[in-house]
Specification:
CATH class of chain A: Alpha Beta
Largest sheet of chain B: 7 strands, mixed
Distance between the termini of chain A: 41 Å
Structural class of chain A: mainly beta
Largest sheet of chain A: 5 strands, mixed
Order of helices and strands of chain A: EEHEEEEE
Mean pLDDT of chain B: 87
Strand order of the largest sheet of chain A: 2-1-7-5-6
Radius of gyration of chain A: 13 Å
CATH architecture of the largest domain in chain B: 3-Layer(bba) Sandwich
Mean pLDDT of chain A: 93
Shape of chain B: globular
Number of helices of chain B: 15
Helix content of chain B: 25-40%
Strand content of chain A: 25-35%
Low-confidence stretches of chain A: none
Low-confidence stretches of chain B: 51-57, 63-77
Number of domains of chain B: 3
Shape of chain A: globular
Number of strands of chain B: 21
CATH superfamily of the largest domain in chain B: FAD/NAD(P)-binding domain
Strand content of chain B: 15-25%
Helix content of chain A: under 10%
Distance between the termini of chain B: 25 Å
Bound molecules: flavin-adenine dinucleotide, FE2/S2 (inorganic) cluster
Largest interface: A-B, 35 and 37 residues
Radius of gyration of chain B: 22 Å
Oligomer: heterodimer
Chain lengths: 84, 434
């Protein structure tokens, strides 16, 4: 079996390579960010449910805001921004 | 696959153990069946990504073979259509469901509908629970399954229910440093539960407990997290067991308080709800004719209950209710186990006192406990504080508020998930054309 290739994406401008199938949420944690966004009152938040219902893992993906990173797989060349 | 209308005899919503079994049985019984799940892969909470699971080869084929559009031989007309990555968001009129994928919207016309929408974790607020790296128990497991490296990370698992054990076992396999499992249920009720476990589903639970012990993770009962602390992310948790309290440094807290049935879609269809679960008859039919429900939404009971209910619902929906009767004995068995399970892992009153005035209860809108105390109903909390009005639509705070204040969330309005405008207009057109 051939070695799985890796997927390269950019998180807050920094290049990162992950295994195929990795979600954007996992990639953000791998990149060392635990705060994905700020809440209404400005407190840092990260993923809670891991299954698409809490909306705490929202980030900007390819310019699209409010994307639930736990439900999206990393794609080559993806641009991810946290902290909004 | 761009057509806006598709039709079938049996539509199955949810591709976990219940939905997969129902779809398999329905299409083998000759019904033209559509199976959809909002995840990119079938399997539901337990079988997702589990290629090694040995249960029923045909069910497993459904999971692993996602590109093949049909079950059975290739020269047979495709009786099963699988739609991974599709979510039902509205039910504009009887016999029609509106489903959307990331880029498309479809109206699905059906004769019979089987709801197998599963369950989610229940979360309870406590000081610090909004800190990053405080996750659900199933939540952290999902994160690891989807690529998060956990080897060597210090994890505390806390809350209640058998899921804590399953997650501990999984994380240990991934070489996490699981420091403690804190189970809020009392040791005596767990002991009684243990004694009552003599039969099949129960054995799995015993095996999980045994494994946890073999994995040398401390499993404390009557024990819970009182707060999570850290500057911008989790650094440590404070724990209590009887009069003893202490702190534990950790990288992740995996915390969940048993499960909550996903009843929203059933409610939207007008199905009667009883004690938080979808009410069904012995054929798994809900109070709405031609709408069936199987698995966790009818009561939390684990994978065996989901599978047998999926089988009964699939047969009944395909017109073979008589045949389904032979599974009733197994079902009763699973239901009894479910009853004991839910009794054992009932939430203790002390958990109501964990939050302080400043603790956010509604995480979407940052509504604090003090603000909720000024309200007298769920409706007032929504109107005055926007509690439950954020994107999770009360899925996270609803069960917490119900536990803390006894308020029942109001009935569901479409869409059941924040949907695209396009889907809503399509649902609207369907409604008007009825
Ligand atoms: C987070 C979590 C983790 C769990 N982990 C374990 C475990 O490790 N071991 C164990 O024994 N049990 C586990 N459980 C318990 C588990 O619920 C049952 O064992 C079993 O998976 C139930 O099967 P089911 O088919 O009833 O529901 P599920 O497996 O939950 O399947 C329901 C499916 O329906 C989908 N769905 C829901 N609504 C819609 C909609 N509107 N449109 C389209 N699709 C929809 C869901 O995404 C899901 O895939 C877990 C439960 C949860 C909530
Ligand atoms: S972690 Fe809850 S939606 Fe992504």
């Amino acid at each position: 079996m051939p070695m799985p290739e890796t997927v390269s994406l950019r998180i807050n401008g920094k290049e990162l390579s992950v295994a195929p199938g990795t979600t954007v949420a996992a990639a953000i944690l791998i990149a060392g960010h635990s705060a994905f966004r700020r809440s209404v009152a400005g407190t840092p938040r990260g993923p809670l449910c891991g299954m698409g219902i809490c909306f705490e893992c929202r980030v900007t993906v390819n310019g699209e805001p409010h994307a639930r990173s736990c439900q999206i797989e990393c794609m080559p060349g993806m641009e991810v921004r946290t902290g909004d | 696959m761009t057509e806006a209308h598709v039709s079938c005899d049996v539509l199955v919503v949810g591709g976990g153990p219940a939905g997969l079994t129902a779809a398999q049985v329905a299409c083998e019984s000759g019904a033209k069946t559509i199976l959809l799940d909002d995840n990119p892969a079938f399997g539901g909470q337990i079988w997702r990504g589990a290629k090694h699971f040995r249960f029923d080869n045909k069910v497993l084929d459904l999971i692993s073979d996602q590109t093949a559009a049909q079950l059975g031989t290739t020269d047979e007309p495709a009786r099963l259509r699988k739609m991974p990555g599709w979510r039902v968001v509205a039910a504009p009129r009887p016999g029609v469901a509106t489903a959307e994928s990331l880029s498309e919207t479809n109206s699905i016309h059906f004769q019979k509908l089987i709801l197998a929408t599963g369950a989610r974790e229940r979360f309870l607020p406590f000081p610090g629970w909004t800190l990053p790296n405080v996750m659900g128990a199933g939540g952290l497991q999902a994160m690891v399954k989807s690529g998060l490296p956990i080897a060597g990370k210090r994890v505390v698992i806390a809350g209640t229910g058998p899921l804590l054990l399953a997650v501990a076992e999984y994380l240990k396999q991934c070489r996490a440093d699981v420091r403690l499992i804190a189970e809020q249920a009392s040791g005596s009720s767990l002991f009684r539960f243990g004694l009552s476990l003599t039969s099949h589903p129960a054995k799995l639970f015993q095996a999980a407990m045994l494994k946890a012990r073999l994995l040398t993770v401390p499993y404390l009962t009557d024990c819970w997290v009182t707060r999570a602390e850290g500057k911008d992310t989790l650094e440590r948790v404070c724990l209590r067991q009887e009069s003893k309290s202490w702190q534990l440094e950790c990288d992740y807290l995996a915390t969940g308080f048993h499960l909550i049935p996903n009843t929203e879609l059933a409610e939207l269809m007008g199905c009667a709800i009883e004690n938080g679960c979808v009410k069904v008859d012995e054929d798994q039919q809900t109070s709405v004719p031609n709408v069936y429900c199987a698995g966790e939404p009818t009561g939390i009971g684990g994978v065996e209950k989901s599978v047998v209910e999926g089988r009964i619902a699939g047969l009944a929906a395909a017109g073979l209710a008589q045949e389904a009767r032979k599974y009733h004995a197994v079902w009763r068995h699973c239901a009894r186990f479910a009853g004991r399970l839910n009794e054992t892992f009932r939430l203790r009153e002390e958990l109501k006192a964990l939050s302080t005035d400043e603790t956010f209860v509604c995480r979407c809108e940052d509504v604090t406990l003090a603000q909720l105390r000024e309200c007298s109903t769920w409706r007032a909390a929504k109107l005055h504080r926007r509690c439950g009005m954020g994107p999770c639509q009360g899925r996270i705070c609803g069960p917490a508020v119900e536990f803390l204040f006894g308020w029942k969330p109001e009935s569901v309005r479409p869409p059941v998930f924040p949907a695209r405008v396009e889907s809503l207009t399509q649902a609207d057109v369907e409604e008007k054309s009825s």
